[in-house]
Structures
1.
Amino acid sequence: MKTIQTIAIIGASGNMGAAISKSLAKGNYRLLLCANDLNKVQAVADEIIKTNPAASAEAVDCSVDASWEADIIISAVPYAAEKEVAEKIREVANQKIVISIANPLNETYDGLVIAPDTSAAEELQKLLPNAKVIKAFNTTFAADFATPVIDGKQAGAFIAGNDPEALETVSELVSTAGFNPIVAGKLAVSGTLERMQLLLIQLNMKYDYNWLAGWKILHQ
Amino acid sequence: MDRLLSLATMYELFFQKFNEKVPLTPEEQEQIKAYLTPKKLRKRQYLLQEGDICKSIAFVEKGALRAYTVDENMNEHVIQFAIEGWTISDLFSYLTAEPATYNIDALEDAELVLITRSAHEEFLKNLPKYETYIRLLITGAYIALQRRLTSNLSLLAEERYTSFTETYPDIAQRVPQHMIASYMGLTPETLSRVRKKMADRR
Ligand SMILES: NC(=O)c1ccc[n+]([C@@H]2O[C@H](COP(=O)([O-])OP(=O)(O)OC[C@H]3O[C@@H](n4cnc5c(N)ncnc54)[C@H](OP(=O)(O)O)[C@@H]3O)[C@@H](O)[C@H]2O)c1
């Protein structure tokens, strides 16, 4: 697509938000970065422009304005903050793609804070009934964005959602970030994806992968 | 505060114009609202670039936009302007899913209400009043197109300009003269001569 898509990244100063912003800045996107602390997102925007003067990244004070301008919204805040963010952007997120990257982990990283029959993505969809919620980027660590090819192999990144056109758009985003997009299924698959990342975190701690690890599906 | 106000009025003009064409019940209004996309566009940003498929009809709540084509010599030809209360799109591309031949960009910061193709199809299936609305909308667009074609083919430069400023007084005020010249198929120099002649006569 030639027309530049605008992406609002809420929580752009965090580990994931900054990593996603930096890697999407390579694509044909205009990035609006927001979080609680404007100075921190401004630093991320400055860094993006410094490394890539052609990129379009701007710190924006208000997640409502950014989401109103955006075609795509990425919620990169901790799971616990998602309800508050969703309530703020509900009106302006109408019919837009909202990407859920959250893994609803407990404080000790050995379980989830969510019931077994749901997921952070499905909870976000309930909070934003008229948005097209898509699960993506939850099975990749923040460090993977700088190195999407690990040990000579490109990491896969799973995507789940109910709207075919939105899945296609998000697949393009995942490719731009350097990962191999794998559409896993409907939004209800998100629970599996979130639990897969819980496993990867536990393996990371057990075997000391240094947070540089990912999933790859081997197939014929 | 300012923002809360504009959020509350995000769809105000859209429904005002819709109700003028086809009156809606509050329930129908809510049903439609669920499928609309609110979108802000800043000055000089594109809503659509030639070659992409036009995914939505844009209704202007605030601001001004234009649709234009670019010829082999990179000259821009303005096809349509849109200000508050108007809609703008590449209808050909929107209805056929063929690549767009128009570019659409914002002449001023704008607040839009988008009807995407999937919303359009949803409405056509479940809301007969929308069919009336869209028929009136397309009829209006057709009439405007025909009027403009006839005017460019048969009227003198001065008559064209007078007719434009009479039909669209608000646009004539807000849009740069060279774009109005382009819209009328005149060079900026010709338009400037015509305006001077008209002013001298007064
Ligand atoms: N880290 C990973 O490798 C990884 C991998 C996959 C998925 N995830 C998921 O990604 C999400 C973010 O994780 P993270 O590690 O990047 O966390 P983080 O470093 O703590 O970043 C959180 C970001 O959210 C912002 N934020 C917090 N509350 C907010 C609110 N109410 N409104 C607006 N912004 C708010 C913070 O901005 P302020 O500092 O200004 O408050 C910060 O920019 C989590 O849901 C996590 O499960 C993380």
Note: Chain B has two domains: 2-154, 155-202.
2.
Amino acid sequence: MTEAPYLSINGISKSFGPMQVVRNADIEVGRGEFVSFLGPSGCGKTTILRMVAGFETPSTGSISIDGRDITYLKPSQRNIGMVFQSYALFPNLTVAGNIGFGLRVAGVNRADIDQRVKEMLALIGLPQLADRFPWQLSGGQQQRVALARAIAPRPSVLLLDEPLSALDAKIRVSLREEIRAIQQELGITTIFVTHDQEEALSMSDRVMVMYQGRIEQIGTPAEIYNQPRTSFVAAFVGTLSQLDATVTDLGRGEAKVGSAAISGLTLPDSVKPGDAIRLAIRPESIRREHRDGDQTLEARIESVNFLGAVIRIKLTIGDVALSLDTFNDPTRPSPVNGQTIKVHFAPEAVLALTD
Amino acid sequence: MKRIAAWAALAFGTLYFLLPLMGMTEFSLKMRRGVYSLDAYARVLADPKFQETFSYSVIMAVFTILFGILLVVPTAYWVRLKLPRARPYVEFVTLLPLVIPAIVVVFGYIRLYNTSSWLPLTGTVTGTNILLMFGYATLSLPYMYRAVDTGLRTIDVTTLTEAAQSLGAGWVTILGRLILPNVLVAVLSGAFVTLAIVIGEFTMAALLNRPAFGPYMQLLGANRAYEPAALAVIAFGITWGCMGLIQLVARLAPKPAIPVKD
Ligand SMILES: Nc1ncnc2c1ncn2[C@@H]1O[C@H](COP(=O)(O)OP(=O)(O)OP(=O)(O)O)[C@@H](O)[C@H]1O
Ligand SMILES: [Mg+2]
């Protein structure tokens, strides 16, 4: 980030009784940026979001928006838009009433509210539903209205806590594209909590991966996927096969898997010859065809999974299982269980992990 | 065989409730010798004392209901939102009026608020009315609290509150514009029960010496023959009217918009 961060979360921790659920988290979000919090259930994503929204107070650390410290402000004074997993529309108000609620509370006059509500309804593509009540809407429509309600008062930051997880798969995909489009159109600074990596990777400018209350890595989706900095990130994001190896030669970047040597690896600075490391590789990086510079291992086919365009083959190398994705090619014989094949991969695609 | 037993039980129950009622109604119609007439009703309705005491009780009921709403809705809401673990205890407290006799409560009031006490409420008519309203509110508390608490269960209080807060709403707005409208049906059913209780209440009104409907019924019952029966039928009609209204309102209730969870 070149300019000063818009939302900055400085060293916040949160404990509930003896249990520390957020540990010393530092996050900076630029103006108009879309950042996802990704992590397994219970890792503390919601807790950080709720501290930004003001529903929880950090045990230590501070939060500021546009240079203003908001750590101890009441939720109602923060001008933050929030979208909940359960939609949380007000059952006694119509769609228009829900969307206009924040403006009404702020004392905006009727005409301006009506105008803004119309704008919002057009934005979410539901102009004909203004007078419906929440119980007359589908889940997807309710969540759209909840989004419109959150952004109608022009909040400084928009927070979404797993807004799509209560919806079914098809709507989930279309709505996430819609949310991203609206976010970009309005240029609104957004934090999006999810435990769905596809969601996080496809929507975000940057992704923050959390585990057990700690931030594991913050980076662009490509960085997170291609250069995971910890073995947790490597394993959590995408599918990853891991092979145990022993470092043999630092200069050539060589390590041994069983009796086979693999060279050209990027080894961490901290390792010495003889150290045990783990080599991690993604299914799509393993090929059956050989290309220049490829390293080769021999593997046995354990099972073949026909996914349509892609065939996913489960292999074993020694006693380690890994998988390989290959495009379905009707002109070639399909792989057979029990067969021994040669697999190839570029050494640059291998991640050497020490922890 | 089981079916027959069930029907028999139902028939017995119906007779048990209906026979006295029918007897009373029949008796109330016999004021004129030899024919059925509504004379007793006409007499009762024309009695200025009836009109006075009845309107007094209705007004007291209205104030009691308003006071009850102001007391119970925020309390039940707060308990659900912030003190969910205290719920059983609060519920227990609200049930106490069912086990403490009204006469104990009213003697307590008189001791605490008599003319020589620190807050001499019984010294003035308004003060006594207020005291009586507190008493009525206490009597209706178990029903009011239960009704409102049940109403709150149909909405996700915590999330709705947080949604409103993030939109800039304060407590008054949240209670007035969101919580109350969403539990209105429940509040109304509590209100009708309160009305029925206040209309028929005797002990408190008599001991505080207020011109309420309950003591009037009692007085009439001690001195006349046909009119009390007519009055009882009227009072019964009012109570059942309230019950009917509860049913009606509950049927017209809007559906909850969010999955109910507890
Ligand atoms: N109010 C609370 N009191 C006590 N513990 C809490 C409270 N809120 C959250 N926790 C605990 O803090 C931890 C982190 O919770 P959090 O809700 O932030 O997880 P999450 O990452 O959002 O998980 P999920 O994906 O399941 O929503 C959990 O172990 C949870 O049990
Ligand atoms: Mg969560």
Note: Residues A 45-46, 161 surround magnesium ion (ligand 2) (CB under 6 Å).
